[in-house]
């Protein structure tokens, strides 16, 4: 496995935040830097990161099962509280974060590129941030309207159960930490960070990279029904476009966090 040649100093620095005029202004665009890992190298490291992601989740579930079985005697009510989807989702999401990032950081390290450059962790201006948040909320509102028009539940059953068990178990803080912090960092670092960087600079191109990362990301969300997966696919396309247009992964990290928080708030408002 080899990396493609690189120039000294990495990609050019992004423009200062004060010069940021608008997320869609050509003056603020940061070109996609040449990939340090080619298409197949990116694929291989992506598979390794996904393997780490799922291994960590399996280990988290096994740890919970062992703790429930041998840690101490608990009554049925306490077991239902601890085994709720809120606890399981929170534990697996938080556990997968460090191991996945470790693999991705190793890939960037072996490519001899700074993490800030490989993952495009460049500052974004307030207008770009506002534009990203508006796009995320507008897309969520659009999908709710589509669900209503189709006679489909506007609230995801998975999120409804997640919120309900979080309230019952007193673990709402854990769910918020997982949904608003851990999941965005893990998933955006992998899809709009590492995979996008390598595939966009290959023959696949920017459009192909956005499409492929969105498809894989949507396929991972097996907890949702067909409309939910379709929503994730569209969200991935939106994230990918804004990742390219802004030149920074911080744009999609912000959007992902806002979208997850909005989903929890929506369920809280409609279910009480």
In short:
The protein has one domain. The protein is 72% helix and 0% strand. The chain has helices at residues 39-71, 76-82, 85-110, 115-118, 126-149, 157-169, 172-200, 205-220, 226-246, 249-271.
What is the CA-atom radius of gyration, in angstroms? 20 Å
Terminal CA distance reads: 53 Å
Total count of helical runs of at least 4 residues: 10
Helix content: over 70%
- The arrangement of helices and strands along the chain is HHHHHHHHHH
- The pLDDT mean sits at 85
Structural domain count? 1
The SS-based structural class is mainly alpha
The major β-sheet equals: none
Mind sketching the topology for me?
Elements: H1 39-71, H2 76-82, H3 85-110, H4 115-118, H5 126-149, H6 157-169, H7 172-200, H8 205-220, H9 226-246, H10 249-271
Helix pairs in contact: 1-3, 1-7, 3-6, 3-7, 5-9, 5-10, 6-7, 7-8, 7-10, 8-9, 9-10
């Amino acid at each position: 496995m080899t990396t493609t040649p690189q120039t000294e100093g990495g990609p050019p620095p992004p423009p200062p935040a004060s010069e940021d005029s608008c997320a869609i202004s050509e003056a603020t665009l940061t070109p996609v830097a040449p990939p340090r890992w080619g298409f197949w190298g990116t694929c291989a490291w992506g598979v390794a990161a996904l393997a780490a992601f799922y291994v960590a989740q399996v280990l988290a579930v096994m740890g919970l099962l062992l703790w429930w079985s041998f840690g101490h005697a608990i009554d049925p009510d306490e077991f239902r509280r601890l085994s709720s989807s809120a606890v399981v989702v929170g534990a697996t999401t938080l556990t997968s974060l460090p191991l996945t990032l470790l693999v991705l950081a190793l890939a960037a390290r072996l490519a001899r590129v700074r993490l800030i450059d490989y993952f495009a962790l460049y500052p974004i201006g307030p207008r770009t941030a506002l534009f990203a948040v508006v796009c995320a909320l507008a897309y969520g509102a659009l999908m709710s309207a589509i669900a209503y028009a189709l006679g489909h539940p506007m609230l995801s059953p998975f999120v409804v159960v997640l919120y309900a068990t979080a309230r019952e178990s007193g673990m709402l803080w854990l769910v918020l930490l997982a949904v608003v912090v851990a999941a965005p960092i893990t998933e955006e670092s992998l899809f709009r960070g590492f995979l996008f960087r390598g595939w966009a600079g290959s023959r696949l191109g920017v459009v192909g990279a956005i499409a492929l990362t969105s498809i894989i990301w949507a396929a991972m969300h097996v907890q949702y029904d067909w409309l939910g997966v379709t929503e994730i696919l569209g969200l991935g396309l939106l994230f990918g476009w804004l990742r390219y247009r802004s030149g920074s992964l911080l744009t999609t990290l912000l959007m992902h966090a806002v979208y997850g928080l909005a989903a929890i708030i929506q369920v809280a408002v409609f279910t009480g």
